[in-house]
Structure formats: C-alpha cells, structure tokens
Specification:
- The chain is elongated and about 70 Å long.
- The two termini are 32 Å apart.
- The strands form 4 sheets. It has a two-stranded antiparallel sheet. The chain has a two-stranded antiparallel ribbon with strand order 3-4.
- A hairpin with a 2-residue loop joins β5 and β6.
- By secondary structure, the chain is of the alpha+beta class.
- α3 packs antiparallel against α5.
Length: 228
C-alpha cells in the first residue's frame, strides 16, 4: 500500500467474493475501493487518474511439488477483456472493459460477467458506437434553453454524475458527447461561456452543498470566492 489511510489515493482491498451472477459459484472477484471520495477530473496528473496495482498469485510449490500450470487465468473474466502489454493508457487497446467500476454503488464503467453493462441512467460512461442506447448523443429538436441548470445528462437531477460527464466530454470529446439539451444545462457558469471544467466544479460544489442548485447559473467569481 503506497498511500496511508486518510491521504489522497488511499484504497482498500477486500474479498474474494462469490459473484452472484454465476450460479456455479466459480466466479470470484475482489473489491478495490478508493476511500477519499474525490471526484476524478481532468485538471492535473493526480486529479485525473489513480493507479492500482493488484496481483493474485499462488505458491511456486506446495509440499515440494511445483504448482506450475495449476492455475489457468485465460478463462478469467478480467483476462478475457484483453490484457495488453501496451503501457500507453491513452490507447484504445489498453482499456479493459471487463474490470467494472462503480461510483456510490452504481455501475459506471465496464461489463460484468453476466453481461450487465454501464449505461446512461444515473452515470453515463457509454461509448459512442456502443450497442447500448446513449442519451448523451446529440439529438434534434428540443428546447433552446436550459431545463435544469447543471443537469448535463438530462436525468432530472443534478449530482456528481453530471460533473463526471462534463469532465469526460472535455477530456475526450470524440467519445463522450453532451446532447444539445445537456450542453445547455451544463453551461451553468458564466465567463468563460460554453461548457468547461468550471461548470463541472460548480456541480461538485452543489453535490458538496457548498453551493445550492438554485444558485445556478452562477459566475466564476462566485466559484472562486467559495473556494477560499
């Protein structure tokens, strides 16, 4: 464990647990939990990523007998997602969607062994061109005004999922696209105009109760004063 409890990046590991979606009981998983509750955002090296190195191993020998070949990982769900030797995390082949990620108990990334995929209900991480419906894609028609300030994913609520979607759209606009209405809702901070990371920050402040949703739209000066 590189980080101490209470510091940024601290994570805990628990398990193994039996995956309920496998009636045979042969699928196990471990849970890795980041404890500091930070919102991941594209504002710097330490803010836009966290690294976890997790290893499962068996003894080289038991009672003097070699265990070589005793464990075959090639049918493991995470292995089937694609274990790449590519070390550039920005490349498509380095992503493994068979390692699901959750935020507050909601599946926001990846696919579970039973085929359950992250979708656009509370948290939207669906990729463009995927098989699941993606409510973040541009749509024709609709209002030319915000229907709920801060509601970037148009689910009728303003929470951290809206901030996450804005940050994803800023970091990778080709894969994460705000709908026309979502972009209107997301632009909740004046100066700079348009959807920026400052809008995501305002939504995070609403989530943290530093700012009220009814205070939106607001200005960057108000955001700066609340950060002091």
């Amino acid at each position: 464990q590189q980080y101490k409890e209470g510091t940024q990046g601290y994570a805990t590991v628990s398990g193994p647990y039996v995956y309920e979606g496998d009636p045979s009981g042969n699928t196990l998983y471990a849970r890795i939990k980041f404890e500091d509750g930070r919102a991941i955002q594209p504002t710097g090296q330490s803010e836009h990523r966290d690294e976890v190195q997790f290893r499962i191993s068996i003894p080289a020998a038991i009672d003097g007998k070699s265990t070589k070949g005793a464990w075959d990982p090639t049918n493991d769900w995470s292995y089937l997602g694609g274990i790449s030797s590519d070390k550039d995390l920005k490349k498509e082949e380095s992503l493994n969607e068979n390692m699901p990620m959750y935020v507050n108990g909601v599946l926001v990334w990846g696919t579970e062994p039973d085929g359950t995929k992250a979708s656009g209900s509370e948290y939207v991480f669906t990729r463009n061109g995927g098989s699941s419906p993606d409510p973040t894609q541009p749509s024709s028609g609709g209002s030319d005004k915000a229907t709920l300030w801060g509601d970037a994913n148009c689910d009728g609520t303003v929470d951290i999922s809206d901030a996450v979607l804005i940050m994803q759209s800023q970091a990778n606009p080709e894969k994460y696209v705000l709908s026309k209405q979502g972009a209107l809702n997301a632009d909740c901070v004046d100066n700079p105009k348009g959807v920026t990371s400052t809008d995501a920050l305002a939504i995070q402040m609403v989530e943290a109760k530093t700012l009220k949703q009814t205070d939106l739209p607001t200005t960057s000066d108000v955001i700066s004063s609340l950060q002091k």
